[in-house]
Amino acid sequence: MLQQFLENGLRGKSNTTVKTYEHAILKFEEWLDGAGTNLQEYARTDVQQYLNYLASRDKSAATINKIWNAIKKYSRWAGKEETIEDINIIKVKDFRNEAPKALNRNELNRLLREVDRTGNKRDIAIVTLLSNTGIRLYELVSLNITSIEISNRKGNAKIIGKGNRERDIPLNSEARRTITRYLEERTDSEIALFLSNRGKRISARSVQHLLEKYGFNVHALRHTFITNLIRSGEDISVVQALSGHANADMILRYSAPTLYDKQYALENLYIEQ
Protein backbone atom coordinates (compact mmCIF):
# COMPACT_ATOMS: atom_id res chain seq x y z
CA MET A 1 0.00 0.00 0.00
CA LEU A 2 2.86 2.37 0.78
CA GLN A 3 4.38 1.78 -2.66
CA GLN A 4 1.06 2.63 -4.30
CA PHE A 5 0.93 5.85 -2.30
CA LEU A 6 4.45 6.80 -3.35
CA GLU A 7 3.71 6.12 -7.02
CA ASN A 8 0.17 7.51 -7.24
CA GLY A 9 -0.39 9.78 -4.28
CA LEU A 10 2.82 11.77 -4.82
CA ARG A 11 2.73 12.00 -8.58
CA GLY A 12 4.52 15.13 -9.77
CA LYS A 13 6.51 15.57 -6.55
CA SER A 14 10.32 15.79 -6.64
CA ASN A 15 12.46 12.75 -5.80
CA THR A 16 13.57 14.50 -2.62
CA THR A 17 9.98 15.01 -1.46
CA VAL A 18 9.06 11.40 -2.27
CA LYS A 19 12.03 10.10 -0.27
CA THR A 20 11.15 12.38 2.66
CA TYR A 21 7.55 11.13 2.71
CA GLU A 22 8.65 7.51 2.32
CA HIS A 23 11.01 7.76 5.27
CA ALA A 24 8.34 9.43 7.43
CA ILE A 25 5.65 6.84 6.65
CA LEU A 26 8.05 3.93 7.13
CA LYS A 27 8.92 5.25 10.60
CA PHE A 28 5.21 5.71 11.35
CA GLU A 29 4.55 2.15 10.18
CA GLU A 30 7.33 0.85 12.42
CA TRP A 31 5.80 2.64 15.41
CA LEU A 32 2.31 1.35 14.53
CA ASP A 33 3.63 -2.20 14.44
CA GLY A 34 4.93 -1.79 17.98
CA ALA A 35 1.54 -0.43 18.99
CA GLY A 36 -0.25 -3.47 17.57
CA THR A 37 -1.70 -2.04 14.37
CA ASN A 38 -0.69 -1.13 10.80
CA LEU A 39 -1.08 1.36 7.96
CA GLN A 40 -4.51 -0.03 7.07
CA GLU A 41 -6.10 -0.08 10.53
CA TYR A 42 -4.62 2.79 12.56
CA ALA A 43 -6.94 5.28 14.26
CA ARG A 44 -6.85 8.94 15.22
CA THR A 45 -5.49 8.09 18.68
CA ASP A 46 -2.53 6.33 17.06
CA VAL A 47 -1.66 9.45 15.09
CA GLN A 48 -1.92 11.72 18.13
CA GLN A 49 0.11 9.38 20.32
CA TYR A 50 2.82 9.02 17.67
CA LEU A 51 3.22 12.78 17.39
CA ASN A 52 3.28 13.04 21.19
CA TYR A 53 5.95 10.33 21.22
CA LEU A 54 8.09 12.32 18.77
CA ALA A 55 7.77 15.41 20.96
CA SER A 56 8.80 13.37 24.03
CA ARG A 57 11.93 12.32 22.13
CA ASP A 58 12.88 16.00 21.74
CA LYS A 59 12.29 16.05 18.00
CA SER A 60 12.22 19.62 16.72
CA ALA A 61 8.94 21.29 15.84
CA ALA A 62 10.07 21.50 12.21
CA THR A 63 10.77 17.75 12.08
CA ILE A 64 7.43 16.88 13.68
CA ASN A 65 5.65 19.17 11.25
CA LYS A 66 7.35 17.44 8.30
CA ILE A 67 6.25 14.03 9.56
CA TRP A 68 2.74 15.33 10.23
CA ASN A 69 2.46 16.59 6.66
CA ALA A 70 3.45 13.15 5.36
CA ILE A 71 0.88 11.40 7.59
CA LYS A 72 -1.83 13.85 6.49
CA LYS A 73 -1.04 13.27 2.83
CA TYR A 74 -1.05 9.50 3.26
CA SER A 75 -4.23 9.47 5.36
CA ARG A 76 -6.17 11.51 2.82
CA TRP A 77 -4.93 9.31 -0.01
CA ALA A 78 -5.94 6.18 1.92
CA GLY A 79 -9.42 7.56 2.68
CA LYS A 80 -8.71 7.83 6.41
CA GLU A 81 -9.45 11.55 6.91
CA GLU A 82 -11.01 10.88 10.31
CA THR A 83 -7.62 9.86 11.68
CA ILE A 84 -6.19 13.35 11.22
CA GLU A 85 -9.07 15.43 12.58
CA ASP A 86 -8.37 17.79 15.52
CA ILE A 87 -4.77 16.67 16.02
CA ASN A 88 -2.70 18.82 18.38
CA ILE A 89 0.60 19.81 16.80
CA ILE A 90 3.56 21.75 18.15
CA LYS A 91 3.64 25.05 16.31
CA VAL A 92 6.74 25.64 14.21
CA LYS A 93 8.65 28.83 14.83
CA ASP A 94 8.47 31.46 12.13
CA PHE A 95 11.64 30.58 10.19
CA ARG A 96 11.86 34.13 8.85
CA ASN A 97 12.91 35.25 12.34
CA GLU A 98 15.55 32.53 12.69
CA ALA A 99 18.88 32.65 10.89
CA PRO A 100 20.02 29.28 9.49
CA LYS A 101 23.09 27.82 11.17
CA ALA A 102 26.19 29.00 9.33
CA LEU A 103 29.87 28.38 10.00
CA ASN A 104 31.90 31.24 11.40
CA ARG A 105 35.22 32.14 9.82
CA ASN A 106 37.29 29.97 12.15
CA GLU A 107 35.06 26.92 11.60
CA LEU A 108 35.17 27.28 7.83
CA ASN A 109 38.92 27.76 7.80
CA ARG A 110 39.39 24.69 10.00
CA LEU A 111 37.24 22.57 7.68
CA LEU A 112 39.09 23.70 4.55
CA ARG A 113 42.46 23.20 6.25
CA GLU A 114 41.70 19.69 7.52
CA VAL A 115 40.28 18.50 4.19
CA ASP A 116 43.26 19.98 2.34
CA ARG A 117 45.68 18.10 4.58
CA THR A 118 44.19 14.75 3.52
CA GLY A 119 45.47 15.30 -0.01
CA ASN A 120 42.25 13.72 -1.38
CA LYS A 121 41.64 15.83 -4.50
CA ARG A 122 38.01 14.74 -4.85
CA ASP A 123 37.12 15.65 -1.27
CA ILE A 124 38.98 18.94 -1.53
CA ALA A 125 37.07 19.82 -4.72
CA ILE A 126 33.72 18.86 -3.18
CA VAL A 127 34.17 20.97 -0.03
CA THR A 128 35.61 23.90 -2.00
CA LEU A 129 32.74 23.82 -4.51
CA LEU A 130 30.09 23.61 -1.79
CA SER A 131 31.57 26.49 0.20
CA ASN A 132 32.16 28.71 -2.83
CA THR A 133 28.86 28.20 -4.67
CA GLY A 134 26.30 27.32 -2.01
CA ILE A 135 24.74 24.66 -4.22
CA ARG A 136 22.41 22.09 -2.66
CA LEU A 137 23.53 18.56 -1.91
CA TYR A 138 21.44 16.94 -4.65
CA GLU A 139 22.62 19.61 -7.11
CA LEU A 140 26.22 18.68 -6.32
CA VAL A 141 25.83 14.93 -6.80
CA SER A 142 23.86 15.49 -10.03
CA LEU A 143 26.67 17.44 -11.69
CA ASN A 144 28.29 16.00 -14.79
CA ILE A 145 31.70 16.88 -16.18
CA THR A 146 29.88 18.65 -19.02
CA SER A 147 28.13 20.84 -16.41
CA ILE A 148 31.46 22.56 -15.77
CA GLU A 149 33.25 25.00 -18.07
CA ILE A 150 36.71 26.16 -17.02
CA SER A 151 39.24 28.37 -18.76
CA ASN A 152 42.38 30.13 -17.52
CA ARG A 153 40.57 33.14 -16.15
CA LYS A 154 36.97 32.10 -15.55
CA GLY A 155 34.66 29.19 -14.99
CA ASN A 156 31.00 28.36 -14.84
CA ALA A 157 28.77 25.61 -13.40
CA LYS A 158 25.38 24.85 -14.92
CA ILE A 159 23.08 23.84 -12.06
CA ILE A 160 19.70 22.11 -12.34
CA GLY A 161 17.80 23.07 -9.20
CA LYS A 162 14.31 22.66 -7.76
CA GLY A 163 11.54 22.35 -10.33
CA ASN A 164 14.21 21.65 -12.97
CA ARG A 165 15.05 25.35 -12.97
CA GLU A 166 18.46 25.96 -14.50
CA ARG A 167 20.94 28.56 -13.28
CA ASP A 168 24.56 29.39 -14.02
CA ILE A 169 27.02 29.98 -11.19
CA PRO A 170 30.45 31.50 -11.82
CA LEU A 171 33.37 29.54 -10.37
CA ASN A 172 36.01 31.52 -8.52
CA SER A 173 39.72 30.71 -8.75
CA GLU A 174 39.71 28.30 -5.78
CA ALA A 175 36.79 26.28 -7.16
CA ARG A 176 38.37 26.20 -10.64
CA ARG A 177 41.75 25.12 -9.26
CA THR A 178 40.47 22.26 -7.10
CA ILE A 179 38.10 20.90 -9.76
CA THR A 180 40.84 21.03 -12.41
CA ARG A 181 43.31 19.18 -10.18
CA TYR A 182 40.71 16.53 -9.39
CA LEU A 183 39.82 15.98 -13.04
CA GLU A 184 43.50 15.77 -14.02
CA GLU A 185 43.83 12.53 -12.05
CA ARG A 186 40.69 10.98 -13.57
CA THR A 187 41.35 8.30 -16.23
CA ASP A 188 37.82 6.86 -16.46
CA SER A 189 35.02 7.55 -18.95
CA GLU A 190 32.25 8.25 -16.41
CA ILE A 191 30.17 11.39 -17.06
CA ALA A 192 29.55 12.21 -13.38
CA LEU A 193 31.70 15.03 -12.01
CA PHE A 194 32.24 13.36 -8.65
CA LEU A 195 32.72 9.62 -8.30
CA SER A 196 32.51 7.31 -5.32
CA ASN A 197 35.39 5.07 -4.28
CA ARG A 198 33.77 2.40 -6.47
CA GLY A 199 34.05 4.56 -9.56
CA LYS A 200 30.35 5.42 -9.87
CA ARG A 201 28.44 8.68 -9.32
CA ILE A 202 28.87 9.68 -5.69
CA SER A 203 25.76 9.43 -3.50
CA ALA A 204 24.30 12.17 -1.33
CA ARG A 205 24.91 10.00 1.73
CA SER A 206 28.63 9.71 0.90
CA VAL A 207 28.96 13.49 0.73
CA GLN A 208 27.07 13.83 4.01
CA HIS A 209 29.42 11.31 5.61
CA LEU A 210 32.43 13.23 4.29
CA LEU A 211 31.34 16.42 6.05
CA GLU A 212 30.22 14.61 9.19
CA LYS A 213 33.76 13.26 9.61
CA TYR A 214 34.82 16.83 10.31
CA GLY A 215 31.83 17.59 12.54
CA PHE A 216 29.82 19.61 10.03
CA ASN A 217 26.58 19.32 8.09
CA VAL A 218 26.46 19.71 4.30
CA HIS A 219 23.64 22.25 4.51
CA ALA A 220 25.74 24.46 6.79
CA LEU A 221 28.05 25.23 3.86
CA ARG A 222 25.11 26.48 1.79
CA HIS A 223 23.92 28.56 4.73
CA THR A 224 27.43 29.95 5.18
CA PHE A 225 27.72 30.92 1.52
CA ILE A 226 24.39 32.77 1.49
CA THR A 227 24.96 34.39 4.89
CA ASN A 228 28.33 35.75 3.79
CA LEU A 229 26.81 37.19 0.61
CA ILE A 230 24.08 38.93 2.60
CA ARG A 231 26.49 40.33 5.15
CA SER A 232 28.82 41.54 2.42
CA GLY A 233 25.99 43.77 1.23
CA GLU A 234 25.21 41.94 -2.01
CA ASP A 235 21.92 42.78 -3.67
CA ILE A 236 19.07 40.40 -2.80
CA SER A 237 18.45 39.68 -6.50
CA VAL A 238 22.07 38.55 -6.93
CA VAL A 239 21.90 36.30 -3.86
CA GLN A 240 18.61 34.86 -5.07
CA ALA A 241 20.05 34.12 -8.53
CA LEU A 242 23.11 32.41 -7.08
CA SER A 243 21.26 30.39 -4.43
CA GLY A 244 18.36 29.29 -6.61
CA HIS A 245 15.73 30.37 -4.08
CA ALA A 246 12.43 31.02 -5.84
CA ASN A 247 11.19 33.26 -3.02
CA ALA A 248 13.09 36.35 -1.85
CA ASP A 249 11.65 35.85 1.66
CA MET A 250 13.85 32.77 1.94
CA ILE A 251 16.86 35.04 1.49
CA LEU A 252 15.84 37.60 4.10
CA ARG A 253 16.03 35.05 6.91
CA TYR A 254 19.80 34.94 6.45
CA SER A 255 20.05 38.53 7.62
CA ALA A 256 18.50 37.62 10.99
CA PRO A 257 20.99 37.59 13.90
CA THR A 258 22.29 34.21 14.98
CA LEU A 259 22.88 33.09 18.57
CA TYR A 260 26.61 33.67 17.91
CA ASP A 261 25.89 37.27 16.83
CA LYS A 262 23.90 37.94 20.00
CA GLN A 263 26.55 36.37 22.22
CA TYR A 264 29.34 38.33 20.50
CA ALA A 265 27.42 41.59 20.93
CA LEU A 266 26.94 41.03 24.67
CA GLU A 267 30.51 39.94 25.33
CA ASN A 268 31.86 43.03 23.58
CA LEU A 269 29.30 45.46 24.96
CA TYR A 270 31.66 47.37 27.26
CA ILE A 271 34.98 46.65 25.60
CA GLU A 272 36.70 49.87 24.52
CA GLN A 273 37.18 50.13 20.77
TrEMBL record:
- Keyword Cell division in the entry? The reply is yes
One family name in Pfam for this protein: Phage_integrase
Instruction: List this protein's GO terms for biological process.
Output: cell division; chromosome segregation; DNA integration; DNA recombination
Query: Example GO molecular function term?
Result: DNA binding
Subcellular location(s) per record:
Cytoplasm
What PROSITE patterns does the record tag this protein with?
Answer: CB, TYR_RECOMBINASE
Q: Where is the Tyr recombinase domain?
A: 98-273
Q: Where is the Core-binding (CB) domain?
A: 1-79
A GO term from the CC aspect = cytoplasm
Which branch of life, at top level? Bacteria
Q: Which UniProt keywords apply?
A: Cell cycle, Cell division, Chromosome partition, Cytoplasm, DNA integration, DNA recombination, DNA-binding
| Entry keyword Glycoprotein | no
Q: What is this protein called?
A: Integrase
- Record organism: Lottiidibacillus patelloidae
